[in-house]
Amino acid sequence: MKLSFDHSGVPVAEKREGMRNAEPMKLWVSNPADSxxxxxxxxxxxxxxxxxxxxxxxxxxxxxxxxxxxxxxxxEVILGPFEDTPEQDVMFAxxxxxxxxxxxxx
Length: 106
Known about the structure:
Elements: E1 3-11, E2 20-22, E3 27-29, E4 39-44, H1 52-56, E5 59-64, H2 67-73, E6 76-85, E7 88-95, E8 98-105
Parallel strand pairs: 1-4, 5-8
Antiparallel strand pairs: 1-5, 2-3, 3-4, 6-7, 7-8
């Protein structure tokens, strides 16, 4: 399995300018490419069905070429895989105490 660092994600308490709405998760997300430090900000609306760990913990994101291998490497799949955009599928998982997002580009 190949991995390369993509971004880090930080849950925030208020919606920020430039965020896109990720329905039906009741989630607003910034584009890490817009941040000089590669940070993705996530704002969860009240009642978001996202797993609690995603709402309260920072995550690190990697691009991978194989989500199945990434899932097998982790302790637990938290969410996904799912189509995040037409260009990529995404999965959130836990490895030890770390929350990890895996992005698989199509």
